[in-house]
Amino acid sequence: MTNSMNKEDWFNVLASLFDMHVGHDNVDEEAWMPDYESGKSPHDAFYDEYPEYEGLED
């Protein structure tokens, strides 16, 4: 399955989630590539890895 977002946009959204919840936007792209390549959304990838932040975005 491929991702509907291009790689740059996907990682920008992921970086924004990190910045919002973790306090930095330094994302190890190589570590997150399997999620991107599997077609997972950046939101699903982040919250699967960090479920404690789910629902706090409001």
What is this structure, in a nutshell?
This protein is mainly alpha-helical. The chain contains three helices and no strands.
Task: Write structural notes for this entry.
The protein is mostly helical and 58 residues long. The protein is 55% helix and 0% strand. The protein is built from 3 helices and no strands. The chain has helices at residues 7-21, 29-37, 42-49. α1 packs parallel to α3. The chain is globular, with a radius of gyration of 11 Å.
Fraction of residues in β-strands: under 5%
Order of helices and strands: HHH
Please state the overall shape, judged from the principal axes of the Cα atoms: globular
* End-to-end C-alpha gap: 30 Å
Low-confidence stretches: none
**What value does the average pLDDT take?**
91
C-alpha Rg (nearest Å):
11 Å
Fraction of helical residues: 55-70%
- How large is the count of helical segments? 3
Q: Biggest sheet, in brief?
A: none
Let me know the number of strands: 0
Spell out the blueprint of helices and strands.
Layout lengths: L6 H15 L7 H9 L4 H8 L9
Helix pairs in contact: 1-3
List keywords for this structure.
55% helix, mainly alpha, 58 residues
